[in-house]
TrEMBL record:
Domain of life: Eukaryota
Protein name per UniProt: T-cell surface glycoprotein CD4-like isoform X2
Keywords from the UniProt entry: Membrane, Signal, Transmembrane, Transmembrane helix
Membrane-crossing residue ranges in chain numbering: 426-456
Keyword check for Transmembrane: yes
SMART domains: IG (SM00409)
Stretch forming the signal peptide: 1-27
Pfam families: Tcell_CD4_C, V-set
Gene3D superfamilies on file: Immunoglobulins, transmembrane domain of human cd4
Ig-like domain ranges (all copies): 38-131, 351-415
Length: 480
């Protein structure tokens, strides 16, 4: 019986030794936590019993490195005095340490002690900074700065960026140091607006942390350069679609619309506008150089200029410019106007030719050309311009409906028609008669000129003979 008791005591002793060793081993393990600057992180006091199980005389201490920042003894709480201590708060139930509004200097080793037990946590802090506070204009280049602080040794980090469409973005340049990474990206487009993710990874420290950040790119939903074709005397509305409501810009900005007929010409300000932080849009007319209107019913987030009757000299470059904090971005619309005319103007008489002229106001892109053709005509009634030609003439002798097309990449952009009327039959007779009468008249005048010339020549010869006779008589008298 005594032997059995001794055996049981031995087993209990072995169990206690193993338990203490395991507890000691667990106490020496360091748990890792990741925190983001400006946010909050909770550090656990692993293994501590709940308040109801703790003795009133239990002492619980939180330390940062070797400095006590919080202590509980006999149910009395003590916190390190000073402004920094406002960052720290210990929960009453499980004694977790909450660190609020993290900064890089909060990184380090935190220790929770109660009795002989210690729970240690290694805190890594990351700080991601986006240039221009994350508010960009179209075509601007963002710079991301990732800073990292942690207990030594510092881990080697790799960074992967995902844009708002969850596509991997490769930086143009990346400068690395143990605690700082600077990444310069490509020019931004409005479609890049949204929530991006910076993934920080390290195999050595088992770090795999996603840091989200918002990018807002103010700009145009249209192409940076657009070409718009119009026919003379038609109504044209030029529109620029902005994205400030779509991306919830929530900051005021201004803008203006300018027009110049040629690249080297002086620009005329047509209107200016401003958008408030609440998204309210206001336009003001500025110029009287051009007959235009500001439509009363304009779609949301849209700037429009209406030309009620386009003239040939209304062509040129219309530019909408946005301005925010001294930075600018613009979108251009190149207006090209087409007109047609005839020489001579009027009905086409039989046997008479007419010249039709088709002309555009500005240079055409490389794959664009003009074409004249007669509706329901033959292949012989088609004429194409050469590359870069802005004026196309065709000599016609057939009446009917003629069309001039502006074709780009085999796509008809605009067409303008010219109806050539055939002269009435009586006009043809009048023209024929006038032509015959004119010919007879010319012939009669020619005959008259010939007869007059012959008569004049005879009179001259007669006068010459008479003068010779008088000279002869005078010589004979003198000699007699």
């Amino acid at each position: 019986m005594e032997s059995c008791s001794t055996g049981v005591n031995c087993m209990l002793a072995v169990f206690l030794v193993l338990h203490l060793g395991l507890t000691s081993s667990m106490a020496q393990q360091i748990e890792q936590q990741i925190g983001i600057a400006g946010q909050e992180v909770t550090l656990p006091c692993t293994g501590i019993p709940s308040d109801s199980s703790l003795s009133p005389h239990t002492v619980v201490t939180w330390m940062y490195s070797d400095t006590v920042i919080w202590r509980m003894e006999n149910n009395n709480h003590w916190r390190k005095p000073g402004a920094v201590s406002d960052q720290f708060q210990v929960t009453s139930t499980n004694k977790e340490l909450k660190v609020r509004n993290l900064v890089l200097s909060n990184a380090g080793i935190y220790t929770c002690k109660y009795g002989s037990y210690k729970a240690r946590t290694s805190l890594h802090v990351f700080k991601l900074t986006v240039s221009l506070d994350g508010h960009f204009l179209q075509n601007e280049v963002p710079e991301l700065t990732l800073m990292h602080n942690s207990p030594d040794p510092k881990p080697a980090l790799s960074i992967t960026l995902f844009n708002s469409n969850n596509n991997v973005v490769t930086p143009e340049t990346e400068n690395k140091s143990p605690q700082k990474h600077i990444l310069n990206l490509k020019k931004l487009e409005p479609t890049d607006s949204g929530t991006w993710v910076c993934n920080v990874h390290s195999d050595s420290s088992l770090i795999n942390q996603n840091i989200s950040f918002v990018m807002k790119v103010l700009g145009f939903q249209d192409p940076a350069m657009e070409r718009k074709y119009a026919t003379a005397d038609s109504t044209v509305i030029l529109s620029w679609h902005l994205n400030f409501q779509k991306i919830k810009w929530n900051k005021g900005f201004t803008g203006q619309v300018n027009w110049k007929q040629q690249e080297s010409a002086k620009a005329h300000e047509l209107l200016d506008f401003n958008v408030t932080a609440l998204g309210e849009q206001h336009e003001t007319r500025k110029s009287s150089h051009l007959l235009f209107e500001i439509p009363e019913r304009t779609p949301k987030s849209t700037i429009q200029v209406k030309l009620p009757k386009v003239h040939f000299n209304h062509s040129g470059q219309y530019q909408c410019q946005l301005a925010y904090k001294g930075r600018h971005v613009q979108s251009n619309i190149e207006l090209v106007v087409m007109k047609v005319s005839a020489n001579p103007v009027g009905p086409l008489s039989r046997g008479v030719k007419m010249t039709l002229i088709c002309e555009v106001s500005g240079p055409l892109p490389p794959k664009a050309h003009l074409r004249w053709e007669r509706v329901n005509g033959t292949q012989m009634d088609i004429k194409n311009s050469k590359q870069h030609e802005v004026k196309l003439e065709v000599n016609i002798s057939a009446a009917g409906l003629w069309s001039c097309h502006l074709i780009e990449d085999n796509d008809r952009k605009i067409s303008l028609h010219y109806h050539v009327e055939e002269a009435p039959v009586w006009i043809n007779y009048v023209v024929t008669g006038a032509s015959i009468g004119g010919s007879v008249l010319v012939f009669a005048l020619l005959c008259l000129c010939i007869i007059s010339g012959i008569s004049w020549q005879r009179r001259r010869q007669r006068a010459k003979r008479m003068a010779q006779a008088r000279q002869y008589l005078l010589e004979n008298k003198t000699s007699g």
